[in-house]
């Protein structure tokens, strides 16, 4: 049986969000994802935010960038169905294990496939600002891993071309 993993980088880095979706978090591993930039540039598809200038996170391919994320292994088919539904404004895309850097801790198991959710092009807009409640969920999630992960999250997350570290001084 293949060990399928997903990379999460936004609200799903919050352990409570993953647990709420029924995902087993016992083997989660913080990683650095090379070749991607994390931005608040995804128009939220939740009805309350449609037509607003509020954004959620996405990552875009950028060979000169990186961001931290959480690798969630042992994803079951039912987990993928739940997450695909939740992430309806995104495409689930396979990424190479070679794009992962295990800066924070070593990987303790063999992973066969890794997927990430990339925002759909039609919802991309760099003029948007973060949804405050969503931002709080992400910050709480990032801080729950450790201080280095949290600081890296602030440095590698962008809103309107500024890092969160610069934006929330």
Structure in words:
- The chain is α/β, with parallel strands linked by helices and 169 residues long.
- It has one domain (4-159): Gamma-glutamyl cyclotransferase-like (Hypothetical upf0131 protein ytfp, Roll), CATH 3.10.490.10.
- It contains 5 helices and 9 strands.
- Strand 8 (157-159) and strand 9 (162-163) form a beta hairpin.
- Helix 3 (132-143) crosses helix 4 (147-155).
- The longest helix has 12 residues, at 132-143.
- The protein is globular and about 45 Å long.
- The N and C termini lie far apart (47 Å).
- The mean pLDDT is 93.
Corresponding CATH superfamily: Gamma-glutamyl cyclotransferase-like
> Which series of helices and strands comes N to C?
EHEEHEEEEHHEEH
Report strand %: 35-45%
Main sheet record:
9 strands, mixed
Average pLDDT confidence is 93
CATH architecture: Roll
Low-confidence runs (pLDDT<50, min 5 residues)?
none
Radius of gyration: 15 Å
Number of strands: 9
Count of separate structural domains: 1
Binned, the helix content reads: 10-25%
N-C termini distance: 47 Å
